[in-house]
Amino acid sequence: MAEETQIPKVFISYSHDNRDHKRWVAELASALRSNGVEVIFDQWDLGPGDDVPKFMEQSVRSADRVLMICTEQYVHKADDGNGGVGYEAMIVTGELVRDLGTSKFIPVIHQPPGSDLRPVSVSTRFYVDLGNSETYDEQFEILLRELHKIPALTKPPLGKNLFAILPSGEESPEYLNQEPTQEPHNSKIAEEVYSAALSIAKSGDFTAWRHLAKDIRQSAIDSLLEWRRLHEQKPPSNEEQLVAQTLEAAKCYSPLAAMALAGVESGRSKFNNQVAVLDDILFPKGWSLNGFKDVTNVPESIAFIYQALHGAAAVITDQLPLAMKLAKTQMDFPFWNEPIRLCDNTGVMGWPKALGQKVTPVWNALLSLPEQWAWLNEMFGDDYKAAIGAYYMALSLNEYAELLASGNAKVFFSGTHKSLDIPLWFLRLEVDDVRRALRLLTQDVDAVKSIWRVHGVEDDTIVLNWADWVKTCTGWLGNVYGFGCFFHAKGYFALLNNILPENPHIQRGDLFV
Predict the structure, then answer these.
(1) H/E element holding 105?
(2) pLDDT tens track for 55-83
(3) How far apart are CA 255 and CA 245, in angstroms?
(4) Which residues form the TIR domain (predicted)?
(5) Which of 33, 132, 265, 398 has the most CB atoms around its CB within 10 Å?
(6) Which residues pair with 106 in a beta bridge?
(7) Phi, psi of 331, deg, nearest 5
């Protein structure tokens, strides 16, 4: 418990390039202190007559972490190993970095967008890029989470993980000597992969990431083919067996999903784009489309689970645009003549054929995953259901926005039979989970607004047609579930109150409070 409440102490190492740069570093130091980080900073802690090199060395050794503010001038001085005289002696030399261990030092980029020049001594280490004003807040949050150890991460012991990879990207001796008798979809392996992958992504070691991905990808495919061999001639006899069989197949991909979601959670551009995983899921090498449909359609069900987890991970890490990007990605699908967007494939969105195309057992299976995949609890905590719900709220909003953008909204709303591409099962969650989902979704109001604005739909148009959309949603709920879940749905129907509170056209009826 003491470790959780310990105040982190950092030392800021930088070069005094010019007055503007000194002011920028001072503002960074102040922002860190305002967010619970103790800062050792020369502009505050060093006075006239003090021994600068001694101050620098003592500060580096007493601090928990050292922030190396990497301007071009700083990098050149650090690589030369001769910081100069006076304040410039505060440059951390490569020798000192090696002496204390590179994990203590965090490069912080303060260079023009697109540049990430770093000292050789830390050139492959985890870094934060504060040089781009458009991504500054996101990167600053990553830095804070790292300093506060939220979440606290530890690498798995080498030798116990089938996929253990050294930070350099090389396989450990224990890995090479492992007997290939462990089940590749073992949940313990998925937990270890999640922890290792998150550590690798945060360190920025893309070589290690590629090595890990290569092994996990092949293992997942091999495991799924073995699963099929065992179940090919044993079709399920009831719905319960069908769901259990499909979830067992999905376990084959749990380590790959764990790695992909770790990449999403890292927030780093090289690691959070995990669209390619869907290709591995939908088209496993050696998979035949001939046979019992409950078996041959399983990849679609795994894709459904993966996209839901991916979207939830993006939402809970405040990366809603990343979730929408995957949902709108053009994909090839078995039995489709041409590529379509993921969100247009109802099987992947919520009616997978191998799970009977029934929304209730599919939803229940998705919500039960943390009971079987423990690493989901580590990632989502108590917000798993809320994160899934928030993601599907966003998908539903997108469907509404695209309907308005198409010009067919009035015809659709006036029709008697209204089918939806995105199931509204998130409105079956408990009231508290719906409220938490709403809070997660609206943590970035501008990102939510972009869902309809990207289609050219104005805020007023969203508001003025919202009552018709609510009627459509309640009609769908009534047809599928009956009318018992409307009370739970009020949180979603009140969404515009949170997003556009000043809009004069918002209605304030029972469905909006």
Answers:
(1) strand 105-109
(2) 887 888 888 888 999 998 888 887 776 54
(3) 18
(4) 6-148
(5) 265
(6) 67
(7) -135, 150
* Domain match, 122 and 264 both: no
- List the CATH number of the domain containing 31: 3.40.50.10140
Residues 495, 451: contact at Cβ < 8 Å? no
Rounded Cα distance between 405 and 374, Å, is 41
Domain boundary among 337, 372, 407: 372
351 shares a domain with 206: yes
Name every residue whose Cβ is closer than 8 Å to that of residue 84 and which is 6 or more positions away in sequence. Answer: 77, 91
Cβ distance 226 to 295 under 8 Å?
no
For 381-409, what is each residue's pLDDT tens digit? 999 999 999 999 999 999 999 999 999 88
- Which token pair is 512? 């909006």
Residue 406: Cβ within 10 Å count: 11
Residues 24 and 76 placed together within one structural domain of the fold? yes
Sequence length of the chain is 513
* CA–CA dist 30, 177 (Å, integer): 50
Distance CA 244, CA 422 (A): 24
Same domain assignment for residues 186 and 329? yes
Residue 124 and residue 219 in one domain: no
Last residue of one domain, picked from the residues 317, 352, 372: 372
For residue 398, what are its two tokens?
Answer: 């997108």
Longest CA–CA span in the chain (Å) reads: 84
Q: Residue 180 is encoded by which pair of tokens?
A: 């290939």
The answer to whether 134 and 144 are in contact (CB under 8 A) is no
Query: Angle 203-207-209 (CA atoms, 0-180°, nearest 5)?
Result: 65
Q: Which phi and psi angles does 66 have, rounded to 5°?
A: -120, 125
Stated pTM of the model = 0.65
332 with 365, same domain? yes
Give backbone dihedrals phi and psi of 26, rounded to 5 degrees, phi first: -65, -40
In the chain, % of residues over pLDDT 70: 82
Chain-centre distance for alpha carbon 420: 27
C-beta of residue 132 within 8 angstroms of C-beta of residue 151: no
Q: Look at the chain and report how many structural domains it folds into.
A: 3
- Of all helices (H) and strands (E), which one includes residue 360? helix 359-367
Tell me which amino acid residue 351 is: W
Same structural domain for residues 199 and 255? yes
Residues 6+ apart with CB under 8 A from 307: 278, 326, 327, 342, 348, 349
Same-domain pairing of 77 and 188: no
- Torsion over CA: 386, 392, 398, 399 (sign): negative
